[in-house]
Write a structure and sequence with these properties.
214 residues, alpha+beta, SH3 type barrels, 7-stranded antiparallel beta sheet, 3-stranded antiparallel beta sheet
Length: 214
């Protein structure tokens, strides 16, 4: 498909796909601090931050697949490399939850890929270890030390080929420079009324007078 498989010695590049990297999950309300005597204390992160001291913490870690989004020059020189998590496509794009027909998949993969800038589609491929449709979730990032990731290049399952990587690079740029806005802000009262029926969580703006929102 859209993947290639570099040697283990090849330098890390943007578009490299790794498996088994740690995604750390922390709670700012229940932050677990380890003391020097190995005792454990549950604290609010705001309390730790106010003290301004470095602490050792216990966090939950899950092994996940992820793709490098750092630019090639950064992937060679900077202390840390940034990646985005890869998850099953149905979990990332809710519109695909009940999709089964090839025509429906085609529309989602082509049309919604232009509309929804929060993900990048990855097709199944046994070579890279994807048995189902996957997606890069740009909203979930991981940061790992570059030197230590270089030591784990055996966890690199593959990389995007040149065509896909060029598209991937543009998608990253589109996501991080996008202007977030409510698409309904310019509707008049009648149009907003119709929009609210299909999108009940959409809140009208003050200038959309006369809108009856349920």
């Amino acid at each position: 498909m859209i993947y290639e498989f570099p040697s283990q010695e090849a330098a890390i590049r943007q578009g490299d796909i790794f498996v088994g990297l740690p995604r750390l999950d922390i709670s700012l309300r229940r932050f677990v601090v380890l003391s020097e005597d190995d005792s454990i204390r549950m604290r609010l992160w705001s309390e730790v931050a106010e003290e301004g001291q470095r602490v050792t913490a216990a966090v939950a870690a899950s092994p996940v697949a992820a793709v490098v989004i750092s630019q090639d020059c950064d992937a060679l020189h900077v202390p840390d490399i940034t990646l985005c998590e890869i998850r099953p496509f149905r979990d990332v794009e809710r519109k695909s939850k009940d999709t089964t027909e090839p025509t429906s998949w085609m529309k989602i993969i082509t049309q919604h890929a232009r509309i929804n800038q929060k993900w990048f589609y990855l097709p199944p491929d046994q070579g890279v270890g994807f048995t189902t449709k996957m997606a890069v979730d740009f909203t979930v990032t991981l940061r790992v030390p570059r030197v230590e990731l270089e030591e784990l290049r055996h966890l690199r399952a593959g990389r995007l080929n040149d065509y896909a990587e060029a598209h991937f690079r543009e998608r990253i740029a589109e996501f991080f420079r996008r202007f977030p806005y409510d698409e309904w802000y310019a509707l008049d009262a009648a149009e907003m009324q119709a929009y609210a029926k299909a999108h009940p969580t959409a809140q009208p703006y003050p200038w959309q007078a006369g809108v009856q929102h349920s």
